[in-house]
Amino acid sequence: MVREQVAEFSVEYVQALDEEGNADEAELPDVSDDELLELYRLMRLSRRTDERAVALQRRGESGTYAPGTGQEAAQVGSAIALEPDEWMVPSFRESAAFLTRGAPVHRLLWYAMGMEEGAEVADANFPPAIPVGTQPLHAAGIGWGHEISGERKAALTYFGDGATSEGDVYEAMNVAGALDAHAVFFCQNNQWAISTPRETQTRTETLAQKAVAAGIEGVQVDGNDVLGVLSVARDALETAREGDPVFVEALTFRRSMHTTSDDPSVYRTEEQESEWEARDPIVRFEAYLRDEGLLDDDRVERITDEIEELLADEIDRAKEGRDRVVPAEMFDHVFAETPPELQRQRETFRREEGDGEVATAEEGMSGEERAAGGEVTGRGDVREDRETAEDSETSEDEEVSDRGE
Amino acid sequence: MANEIRLVEAVRQALREEMARDESVVVYGEDVGVSGGVFRATQELQDEFPEQVYDTPLAEAAILGMGVGLGATGFTPVPEIQFASFAYQGFHQLVQHASRMRSRTRGTLGVPMTVRTPYGGGIRALELHSESFEAGFAHVPGLKTVVPSNPADAKGLLTSAIRDPDPVIFLEPTSRYRASRESVPEGDHAVPLGEAEVVREGADVTVVAWGAMLHEAMDAVEDAEADAEVIDLRTVSPMDSATILESVRKTGRCVVVHEAPRTGGLAAEIIARINDDALYHLEAPVERVTGYDVPFPMFAREEAYRPDAERIRRGIERALSA
Ligand SMILES: Cc1ncc(C[n+]2csc(CCOP(=O)(O)OP(=O)(O)O)c2C)c(N)n1
């Protein structure tokens, strides 16, 4: 009989800045002073964007929003490690990653305002992915493409601890390993999937070890330590660019509600929440920067003012765009070329609902035209003043869970 | 005895009463336990039935696939899929296993699972939280597809679904969850599956709708000139053709309403059945008032997408004027 150990594994945990902001020199990534300040500004901008977006939702000016409060270090530290032409493949809580990649705030707000305009792609950022755990496969595909074409590039995808329970996520890691896809799987373990705590998702001790079964490298990092995250993300991307995918588990905490429709007090205590308040990623990093002499009160105030000014402009711009939504555009991008039946539907819509344009006569009469005696009747009223922000449904009792999550 | 409750509470009442009646009934899914579900449909049920209500990991294929195993071996699984669009993540389990188990084992194994899931638009939700895929579910042989439009039916149909020996997908219109309080019978209340209801009698035109659209249809006929008969389909599959045909033979005109996209929608199936068995009673082509063949838009454009009373009224006018 043979009985011997044939495999063993371990998972490393990385931290560069401890909770008080003391640095471990050996783990510090190579970052210039300007870059350090930019990391700080981005984290502050993200935090404030969340606050403003939630407030807009509360006033009925916008829709469901998923704040990333508490996860700024995890997102900013990793997104900044990507090259501009490398793809970022987000889930739905990645405002901070988008901002780091240069996406304008108004586009994030448009998405929250229920506008496809907010999902338009300008740079190498995939649009938000609402179905949990589906997008890591896209990163595997992008990264496989880099392998096929021999490019020294990698894609980085974000997902949560809950997502690691979805079959697609296992498939993504496995297929990436099998096909040498240039992909980094960046899991933000924020401890909660709506009301479901991390322990309910899986029995494993770490999420990082899920990489082991796929034969790829898995590493854990303090996700509230922006410099630790940056260091790990850089290494992971370098490895992935060579065709070896990496799984990163960033340990962090969802400090706020799941989305604006959620009420965390139903399923977790204030003690649990305050435990993580002490580990705030921005407070910690600010302490470090002050120690290093890179920040003082004046500088912090200047950054604060700049952020307020930027957000005021961006929110105005978002509202202007929202007030100009043209409903008929829902027909415009279903296919590259609109098929005849869909054209017919669009023209019927324009005739009946109007959108500023009067429908033109077409071949073949629809039922509507039959009814109208073959005449094309154009109402053509302009819908520009539509009040899209009206939020009458929420005024009912039980505000929370009106939209489910 | 009857109480005035909302649709979401009627769902909860049915779950509570069925779990109390039959301990093989197991309610499970994402966030259904501790928090009571994202719409609070299962609120407090875990406290009352700790052995029958479970939170699961975030995995729809697991939720539906385990339902096959549970259901085939003596349990009565009543899983929740958090939103209907995420049933796709486990759709293969419904199509390849749950719906076929009875036929492929020549009746020796069945899957008495009821999959509850919120569906449809009108609540300004996120992307992929508003779709109406009932035609897709109805296209799966061996799977029953049920859509309640009001609190009493929600309770009565869900009760029947749970007691049904075959798999049922139970689509709960999100915009109706808290829309109104209505009278719901207390205690045992089962509304049979597969039976439509004539909710308003009329002589001039038949309007067929279900779920949230039933209410738009009722609003539309309120101010229509004609005397409309309105049918709430309730079970979209297997469909109660007899009630529709009987009505159409009487009125000679028909309008079918659904929120789902037009092409391949259930209106097409209903029209085909009318053609098969009541064509010569028709005095006008059957009208369809439906969503458009576009992905359900994000909420800034959802009002424009969804059929409303005005659009239905125009459909009725066309059916009457032809
Ligand atoms: C396939 C799928 N199932 C369910 C949902 C509903 N839902 C949205 S977010 C969420 C929890 C996600 O948790 P996690 O992956 O940990 O990410 P986090 O929200 O914490 O960022 C759930 C269940 C969904 N969007 N997609």
From TrEMBL, chain A:
Positions of the UniProt region annotated as Disordered: 346-405
Taxonomic superkingdom: Archaea
What Pfam families does the record point to? Answer: E1_dh
Question: What is the organism field in this record?
Answer: Halorussus limi
Query: In its UniProt entry, what is this protein called?
Result: Pyruvate dehydrogenase (Acetyl-transferring) E1 component subunit alpha
GO molecular function (one): oxidoreductase activity, acting on the aldehyde or oxo group of donors, disulfide as acceptor
Q: Which spans does this entry mark as compositional bias, Basic and acidic residues?
A: 367-386
Q: Which UniProt keywords apply?
A: Oxidoreductase, Plasmid, Pyruvate
GO BP term (any one): sulfur compound biosynthetic process
- Supply the InterPro entries for this chain: Alpha-ketoacid_DH_E1_comp (IPR050771), DH_E1 (IPR001017), PdhA/BkdA (IPR017596), THDP-binding (IPR029061)
Biased amino acid composition, Acidic residues: 387-405
Q: Where is each Dehydrogenase E1 component domain found?
A: 40-320
UniProtKB/TrEMBL annotation, chain B:
Give start and end of each Transketolase-like pyrimidine-binding domain.
5-179
Keywords (alphabetical) are:
Oxidoreductase, Plasmid, Thiamine pyrophosphate
The record's annotation in SUPFAM superfamilies points to: Thiamin diphosphate-binding fold (THDP-binding), TK C-terminal domain-like
Which prosthetic group or cofactor does it need? thiamine diphosphate
A GO MF annotation of the entry reads:
oxidoreductase activity
List, in alphabetical order, the GO biological process terms annotated in this UniProt record. Answer: organic acid metabolic process; sulfur compound biosynthetic process
Name of this protein: Alpha-ketoacid dehydrogenase subunit beta
Q: Which organism is it from?
A: Halorussus limi
